[in-house]
């Protein structure tokens, strides 16, 4: 019969695995998580598309536009908080390489505090908008503005819970394969939120402020 | 922040009220009684036979990819039946409510369904068939077959796999309960802006629609991640990309689509929810909303989705043709490239669903050409299958019949799709039943491939073949139904009948509608034949036992291990040397060589967490639909807490010792030797 696309000699072929083949747990986990982040990226891409469509002049229906209520320096403070949080997390991961438990905990703690700061600034900003009478119900453009920024904030919120959980796990379980895997995936998550924030800051806040 | 609702709301029950239970509806009330009686009967029987622990231990808490796959398929079949009944009701209304003189009962002026009820039925029909029948059926097969085909013990994340199943089940439960509590959306399966806005659809129907689809979308995204990671990371040694069974390639391409496109649907629906719950203005007809934004977002998911469902079906056909032609698949590489090309191009064509939006000649032409491009890889596939059969030693068993039927349907569906892809034609037939006939032909390709796979892989999973006589009877009845329903539908499309009519004004169309009604009756017979098929096959299962290679001519790796597949799949992982490993071993006379010694196997433990999470998500969905805020908060909190709990607990798994493996393998081999005698 025709080709099996094989040039292996059946007489000497190895039929059953003898190499005690094991797949790498951590790389499988981080790879899968990477794909989840891809889908998360798509989610934000769709939201950005919606924001793009809804940021024409008529989308604000004569009401307030981001140019009226965005404060670029305030949001810059948020940017710094989030970036430093990512940096702190990265330093924690550096400590992980040396199996330094207190280093990891300190890194996570600093990341947590800075993340909380970011979120507090965001919530303060939202209450400020509410006090101006601006809400999702104001106009299509403002709906897109608020939903996009707050979906990002929600991600940060869950990231903070996750950081807390990981601090507890590092303390109680130490650096087991599972905990290390989770620390790495959380790191990917935290980085992605910072990257998304770059886009939010540039395209929503700065651009919105200038146009 | 929250919108003001017309109608009642209270903090305890949200929008729930007795008046939401349609006990006065002459169709739903008896159905409700039947469902309750049926449920009591089933639960009673389980209790009577003392099967609860078995059910809980072996099925509800399992993380075994094969059992999860079987449950996916069961859900799919149940929902397929529900969707079929919806279809039957639509057809009956249209065969009845024709012309001004047609009679009306049950409060309808014409026919037996009021327009609002009719709208709910066709919306539910579409959602169910695409998201809760076709998708779970296909995911079920991917779940069962892919890990075995690549020589893995399980999926990359068995627990996530179980979670995906129970999310799908929760979605199914949510749409089912909308029958008896409240109502369902009447805006079609894909929804139109702004009719789904609160202002025009103040009931809970649209909310049911949103949260059902959200749950399926979530489950499918998670499942997609799992399957991709499995294919990429878990292949047995020697299973190079060039040796991957073609169904695995098809699954891979399909899930790349799922992973990237479902988030778009999730966002589109979440934005509707923002409009309806928070009073946002994404898709409203004023205050800066944009109606066509919704349609674009939906179809940016919607078109890739139709390829997400058809690519696995193509994969199934690519497995079945070679087996029953006793030849390797013609053009393996081109088949792989075609799948990937289809997955890629499927992203560039969404606008063909609304050429009539009027984006202008340049935009329409670009999308028209892009759409037609899909025909090239699809054509490659059709020719590859034809050349696979060419001069092969064909066996026309029922799996092969279904596959060949699928091929014919693909031809018709593809050609009518090409017609629709021409904007000039599309302006004439858009939103006519011609479109409905087109995509039903396409979706029937999937149904045919699924039934082919049921016949083909059933012996692998359960260890015995299905009865050929009843399988053939079912096939021919089903195919007769297909012709009788869809040929007149194409004709009506050309005659200008628009879709979704609860009242047909033109009596000239009546004969065609009656033929279609007759066709539906024939479909009904094929459903009965399917039940007979299952009954007869299970009754006679002792006669139809099979060994590892159930068909004697099969080619890919799943046929190397025993039938039914042991829970650890392979006692020792195979080392792969060829593309069609089993055919290669058979042709070289080494297909019966067993491993010379066994080793310990590490397996994951069962977990009840997944099903509880599924239950909680159902509660969350229900609470969101009825705006019972405290219940939303509670179930969300419980979900987060449970996820955290599980992450603390972890799963060390357990070990099956080499001695135990050896014992089970000896038993399986003894059984196989008996069968071949
Ligand atoms: C050769 C490939 C195909 C082409 C050229 C094609 C073309 C089209 C076009 C132009 C439309 C829009 C018609 C209109 O609304 O005016 C359409 C609708 C549709 N097609 Fe296809 N199609 C193809 C394959 C498929 C496949 C593989 C599936 C599913 C498995 C599918 C499912 C659908 C569905 C579900 C709709 C309409 C949904 C709705 O309006 O409710 N098509 N197709
Ligand atoms: Cu399409």
From TrEMBL, chain A:
PROSITE patterns: COX3 (PS50253). Its main location: membrane. Keywords: Cell membrane, Membrane, Transmembrane, Transmembrane helix. One of its GO terms (biological process) is aerobic electron transport chain. One of its GO terms (molecular function) is cytochrome-c oxidase activity. The chain crosses the membrane at residues 33-53, 73-92, 104-123, 129-149, 156-176, 188-208. Belongs to the cytochrome c oxidase subunit 3 family. This is Cytochrome O ubiquinol oxidase. One of its GO terms (cellular component) is plasma membrane. It comes from the Bacteria. The keyword Transmembrane helix applies. Residues 1-209 form the Heme-copper oxidase subunit III family profile domain. It is a multi-pass membrane protein. It is found in: Cell membrane. The keyword Membrane applies.
């Amino acid at each position: 019969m025709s080709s099996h696309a094989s040039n292996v000699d059946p007489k000497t072929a190895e039929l059953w695995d003898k190499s005690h083949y094991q797949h790498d747990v951590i790389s499988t986990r981080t790879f899968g998580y990477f794909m989840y982040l891809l889908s998360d990226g798509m989610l934000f891409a769709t939201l950005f598309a919606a924001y793009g469509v809804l940021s024409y002049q008529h989308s604000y229906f004569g009401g307030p536009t981001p140019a009226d209520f965005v404060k670029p320096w305030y949001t810059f403070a948020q940017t710094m908080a989030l970036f430093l949080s990512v940096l702190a997390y990265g330093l924690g991961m550096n400590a992980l390489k040396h199996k330094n438990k207190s280093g990891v905990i300190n890194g996570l703690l600093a990341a947590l505090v800075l993340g909380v700061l970011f979120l507090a600034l965001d919530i303060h900003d939202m209450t400020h908008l509410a006090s101006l009478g601006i809400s999702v119900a104001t106009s299509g453009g403002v709906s897109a503005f608020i939903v996009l920024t707050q979906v990002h904030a929600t991600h940060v919120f869950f990231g903070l819970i996750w950081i807390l959980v990981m601090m507890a796990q590092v303390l109680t379980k130490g650096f087991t394969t599972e905990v290390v895997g989770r620390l790495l995936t959380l790191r990917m998550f935290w980085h992605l939120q910072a990257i998304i924030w770059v886009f939010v800051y540039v395209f929503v806040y700065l651009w919105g402020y200038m146009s | 922040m929250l919108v003001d609702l017309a109608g009642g709301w209270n903090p305890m029950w949200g929008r729930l009220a007795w008046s939401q239970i349609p006990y006065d509806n002459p169709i739903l009330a008896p159905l409700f009684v039947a469902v309750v009686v049926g449920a009591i009967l089933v639960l009673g029987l389980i209790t009577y036979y003392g099967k609860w622990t078995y059910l809980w231990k072996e099925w509800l808490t399992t993380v075994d990819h094969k059992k999860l796959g079987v449950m996916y398929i069961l859900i799919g079949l149940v929902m397929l039946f529900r969707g079929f009944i919806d279809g039957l009701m639509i057809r009956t209304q249209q065969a009845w409510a024709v012309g001004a003189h047609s009679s009306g009962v049950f409060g309808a002026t014409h026919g037996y369904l009021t327009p609002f009820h009719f709208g709910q039925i066709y919306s539910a029909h579409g959602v169910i068939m695409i998201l809760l029948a076709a998708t779970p059926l296909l995911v079920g097969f991917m779940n069962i077959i892919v890990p075995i085909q690549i020589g893995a013990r399980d999926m990359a994340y068995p627990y996530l796999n179980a979670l995906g199943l129970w999310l799908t089940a929760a979605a199914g439960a949510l749409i089912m309960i909308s029958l008896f509590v409240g109502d369902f959306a009447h805006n079609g399966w894909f929804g139109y802006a702004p009719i789904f806005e609160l202002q025009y659809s103040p009931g809970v129907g649209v909310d049911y629609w949103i949260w059902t689809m959200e749950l399926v979308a979530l489950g499918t995204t998670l499942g997609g991640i799992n399957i991709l990671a499995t294919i990429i990371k878990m292949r047995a040694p020697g299973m190079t990309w060039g040796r991957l069974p073609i169904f695995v390639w098809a699954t891979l391409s399909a899930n790349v689509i799922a992973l990237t496109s479902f988030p778009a649907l999730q966002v589109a629906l979440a934005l509707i929810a923002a409009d309806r719950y928070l009073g946002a203005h994404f898709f409203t007809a004023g205050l800066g909303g944009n109606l066509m934004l919704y349609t674009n977002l939906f179809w940016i998911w919607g078109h890739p989705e139709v390829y997400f469902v058809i690519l696995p079906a193509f994969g199934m056909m690519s497995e079945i043709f070679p087996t029953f032609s006793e030849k390797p698949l013609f053009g393996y590489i081109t088949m792989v490239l075609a799948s990937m090309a289809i997955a890629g191009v499927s992203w560039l064509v969404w606008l063909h669903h609304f050429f009539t939006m009027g984006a202008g000649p340049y935009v329409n032409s670009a999308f028209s050409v892009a759409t037609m491009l899909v025909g090239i890889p699809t054509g490659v596939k059709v020719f590859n299958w034809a050349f696979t059969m060419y001069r092969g030693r064909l066996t026309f068993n029922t799996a092969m019949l279904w596959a060949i039927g699928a091929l014919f349907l693909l031809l018709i569906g593809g050609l009518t799709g090409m017609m629709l892809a021409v904007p000039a034609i599309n302006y004439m037939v858009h939103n006519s039943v011609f479109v409905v006939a087109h995509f039903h032909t396409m979706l029937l390709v999937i149904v045919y491939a699924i039934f082919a796979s049921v016949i083909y892989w059933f012996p692998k999973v359960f260890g015995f073949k299905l009865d050929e006589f009843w399988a053939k009877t079912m096939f021919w009845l089903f195919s007769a139904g297909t012709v009788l329903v869809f040929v007149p539908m194409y004709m009506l499309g050309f005659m200008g009948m628009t879709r979704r009519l609860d009242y047909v004004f033109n009596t000239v169309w009546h004969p065609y509608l009656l033929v279609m009604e007759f066709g539906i009756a024939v479909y009904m017979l094929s459903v009965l034949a399917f039940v007979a098929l299952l009954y007869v096959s299970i009754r006679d299962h002792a006669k139809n036992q099979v060994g590892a290679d159930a068909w004697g001519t099969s080619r890919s790796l799943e046929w190397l291990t025993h039938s039914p597949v042991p829970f650890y799949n392979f006692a020792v992982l195979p080392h792969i040397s060829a593309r069609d490993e089993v055919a290669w071993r058979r042709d070289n006379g080494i297909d019966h060589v067993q491993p010379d010694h066994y080793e310990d196997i590490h397996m994951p433990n069962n977990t009840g967490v997944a099903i509880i999470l599924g239950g909680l998500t159902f509660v969350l969905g229900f609470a969101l639909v009825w705006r019972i805020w405290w219940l939303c908060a509670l179930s969300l909190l419980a979900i987060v807490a449970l996820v955290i709990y599980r992450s603390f607990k972890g799963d060390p798994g357990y070990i099956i010792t080499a001695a135990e493996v050896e014992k089970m393998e000896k038993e399986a081999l003894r059984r196989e030797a008996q069968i071949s005698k």
